[in-house]
Amino acid sequence: MVFNLTAVRAPAPGEDPTTTRTTTAAAPVQRPYPPAPAAATALFTLLRALDDGPEREAVRAELVTLWLPMAHRIAGRFRDRGESLEDLRQVAALGLVNAVDRFDPARGAFESYAIPTITGEVRRHFRDRTWALKVPRRIQELRNSVRIAQRELSDLPGIHEPTPADIAAHTSLTEEDVVAGMEALGSYKTLSLDAELASGADGYSLADTMGRTDPAYDVAIDREAAKRELRNLPERDRDILYLRFFEDMTQGRIAEKLGISQMQVSRLITRSCARLRNGALAQ
């Protein structure tokens, strides 16, 4: 996050904050961290008194710069969770800007308001932006509870790998909820179907391990659906269908074999197929 900063003179005691002037500086005013409470309060008072414009933006930028190390330290608590530290610092800086914009000096110390605001912004980033799949908030909360409990229990003497029962007792959750949270721990990031699972010439992808639908599956279902109605057809109609579709005989040869006309064979096939179709759909 880059800010164009100007030096701001804090108002002297008894001076009207709105008359304080700004002067352009080549670099941001460097203050020791954390800033003195009086200086920070004066800057926040000045920020509230100024209308939108360059002066207010300069005061806002100086406040953000003063407290940026705190935001970076909060971001550092969330490292090693799949997001780069630079991205986390950007999110924390956004939370800091929001805290500066919303803070009222009359409420007390800025840290008491800013730390929960920045932490909440980082946590929302993990909740809403970093899951590869849309996961219900309840499952996300279970995942966080299980992760924290696993870390706390692992630090206790005599416990090396907490079981679901241990975590349930520690968190007052049911074992079913603990299992759901543990499953969510492994689904934070998805794996591409094209990801190679083995190295070398014989390497294969995840997609190669997945089953495929048998092309004859639909045929088997259709046959089972038509079987009942087929039994109810007259014997001659069944014979005609058998000769036509299983023996691959032409309508002319069927007519000659049964001693009827080809037109009759055609009408019987059409009528029988319609009856079988309607019977299968009705099921």
Task: Itemize the secondary structure elements and their pairings.
Elements: E1 7-8, E2 22-23, H1 37-49, H2 54-76, H3 85-102, H4 110-129, H5 137-154, H6 164-171, H7 175-185, H8 217-231, H9 235-245, H10 251-258, H11 262-282
Q: Tell me about the biggest sheet?
A: 2 strands, antiparallel
Strand order of the largest sheet: 1-2
Q: In whole angstroms, how far apart are the ends?
A: 65 Å
Secondary structure class reads mainly alpha
Helix content: 55-70%
Please name the defining characteristics of this protein.
single chain; two-stranded antiparallel sheet; 11 helices
Walkthrough of the structure:
It is a single chain. With 283 residues, this protein is mostly helical. Helix content is 59%, strand content 1%. It contains eleven helices and two strands, in the order E-E-H-H-H-H-H-H-H-H-H-H-H. The protein has helices spanning 37-49, 54-76, 85-102, 110-129, 137-154, 164-171, 175-185, 217-231, 235-245, 251-258, 262-282, and strands at 7-8, 22-23. Strands 1-2 form a two-stranded antiparallel ribbon. Helix 3 packs across helix 4 (110-129).
